[in-house]
Amino acid sequence: MKVVICGAGMAGLTLGHALKNCADVVLVEREASAADTGGYRISLNDPACRALQRVLPTDLYAELRATSDTGNAFEQFTVANARLRPMIVAPEPPRQERALAQRQALRVLLARDLAGQIRFSSTVVSVQQNPEGATATLDDGTVLEADLVVAADGADSAAVASLLGHSPTKDLGLTGIAGWAPLAGNEPPDYLLRGPALAFSADGTGVFLSLYRPPTTLADAVPSRALPDHPSLIWGTITPSGRVATARDSSSRNLTAEAERLLKGWSPWLSQHVRESDSERTSAFRFRAADPSKPIADWVPNRVTALGDAVHAMPPTGGRGASTAICDAADLADALQRHFHGESLGSVLTQYQCSIGPRARSAIRESLGPVRIIKALNHRPVQLLAHPLLRLAGTVGARRWRES
């Protein structure tokens, strides 16, 4: 069976590993190499870790864990106010696999053993299917024929848009600016030692915060640039796009200054680290999401299916996007195994597309929760009410945190 996977991100690479010994797999990737990728932290939950453990070779999964923050680095998730005082501290379920991975390092590791099957610097612009086969047309006019085409090309999936006639995702009107700063000066808030946090201010700005610890061992395939040798703070602002209208077109240095402006009046510790961030590691991006009230992957899948953000994009505010996509890939691989053992391809693909809906809707709704808070705080009357409430919640939450 020949399978063309549109996109060599987390989901596409996971599927490539799952199928490499039982199908002729080609991955089409627009970037020039696996190291050419944006993004920062990827949160991998228990189902995603177990899916990777099942799909990947044992030594590769061990490398993945060794280059990620695991164990007590991800014991809880904290919601804080602009002074970085904890308001809510939510423990993660005990005895579960989870990890905070660096996107670039993870992608390099996943691509290493599939290098001969990845067609870099190529973009799928459209796909077609019929009961006998499918095609993927590339930006240079090349047409790849396959028994199955899998759209795994992200939230702006050209493959899915060409199939449906429209994109299943929409712009949420929010822009993120993210960066990476060496830890310096005063110690970080204690709760960050046990897991990531999301902080809010009364004006509708949010910030994701996470600490990075250098791994004790580094795989040869991972460029040193992907995993610095010093402890760092990874931060990412979230704000209505109208406040940073030119952010995506700005230089990295200007983006750092823009983030400083957004965080005026926040914790001095945070402001210092944003100011001292590595400008080359600072970037901006827009938030997109699918509508969880609408059908997911609602086409008849003769020879084309999809997974991950290509069909159910979600903002990073829930930390569920990569995990959901990886689980999709493992489920699709299981479905194709049933096809290899006799079930019709259309039948197993239909079952697969029906099965991903509940998980995707749950993850999208969870990820949209912080988005709704940020959008609500964008209105002046709400801000006037929220300011004293956030301050009070931070005072009470910090006292409880110290007492615990």
From TrEMBL:
One of its GO terms (molecular function) is monooxygenase activity. Keywords: FAD, Flavoprotein, Monooxygenase, Oxidoreductase. InterPro entries: FAD-bd (IPR002938), FAD/NAD-bd_sf (IPR036188). Pfam families: FAD_binding_3. The keyword NADP does not apply. Residues 2-366 form the FAD-binding domain. It comes from the Bacteria. This is FAD-dependent monooxygenase. It comes from Kocuria soli. The lineage of its organism: Bacteria, Bacillati, Actinomycetota, Actinomycetes, Micrococcales.
